[in-house]
Amino acid sequence: MPGGRDAVEAGRRRARGRGRQPGRRRGAAVHLVAGARFVTGSSGRPAGLLLDLDGTLVLSEPVHRLTWRHFFDVWGAEVDDSEYERTFMGRRARDVLAAVSGPWTGRNLGAIQAEMLAHAQTLGHAVETVPGAAALIRQVTDAGVPLAVVTSAGPAWADEVLGPVLGVRDRVSVLVTGEDVVMGKPSPEGYLRACEGLGADPAGCAGVEDSASGIRALLAAGIGDVVGITTTSSAADLLAAGAHRTVADLGDPWLVRLAAGRTEGPAVPR
After folding, report:
1. pTM for this one?
2. With 0-12 CB in 10 A as exposed, 13-18 as middle and 19+ as buried, what is 110?
3. What crossing angle do the helices spanning 109-121 and 61-75 adopt, rounded to 10°?
4. 3-state secondary structure (DSSP) of residue 174
5. Rounded CA gap, 3 and 15, in Å?
6. What are the DSSP E strand ranges found in 99-221?
7. 20 to 30 A from 173, CA-CA: which of 57, 70, 131, 149?
8. Distance between the two ends of the chain, CA-based, in angstroms?
9. Alpha helices by DSSP H, 122-250
10. Annotated catalytic sites, by residue?
11. 227 beta partners
């Protein structure tokens, strides 16, 4: 994790220092689901639902993989698929490039990241939606659960995906992009900012991520129920990273029941 334990604690201090917003739900109940501690709002629903974007709401990983592959070729860097998935996937470019030495070392990483985002935008036609994504967002928000999206991508990409692609931009109460944080995933900063924006206790929220780095970010933020979606990573890898359960897509009945506060039946437990 970039910055290690110090970065995690720094993220927690920043979130605490800004104070809690009005509207935080009280009267939380504690449930044990598939061996995981799950704290919900007083209605039995989560205090907030936190969603990753790429790989969770849309199948854009091929776009990001092609972008990384393009730049690896430009740099003459040898990175196989296994190393890419273990080290680069789901992380903000300037974070991972700062942590891993290579031909990019010593260069302007902010400029490199901007170039990579621009290249990815040209491949936007390759994006497909994850089954159940838009429907779940509508069901959850119709049920009164506030929703946040936390992504390593930039705001232009996020608005494109949430707006024209999914048609749910108006349902997202809080959007945290890679430009809003000092440290990207697996740092918890983005999710702590999202919880602050929702006025929700992290322990009362549920989160969904498709990568190991995203799962670690949710856990480090203290999110009460951490769900892995197996669109880009295996269930075994997500559970090994700490996910409490996994689902194949966002139409999974367990997630649909989440909006109604009925989650007795687990998806795929640890």
Report:
1. 0.71
2. exposed
3. 130
4. strand
5. 17
6. 128-129, 147-150, 174-176, 205-209
7. 131
8. 23
9. 133-142, 155-160, 189-198, 212-220, 235-241
10. 52, 54
11. 208, 245
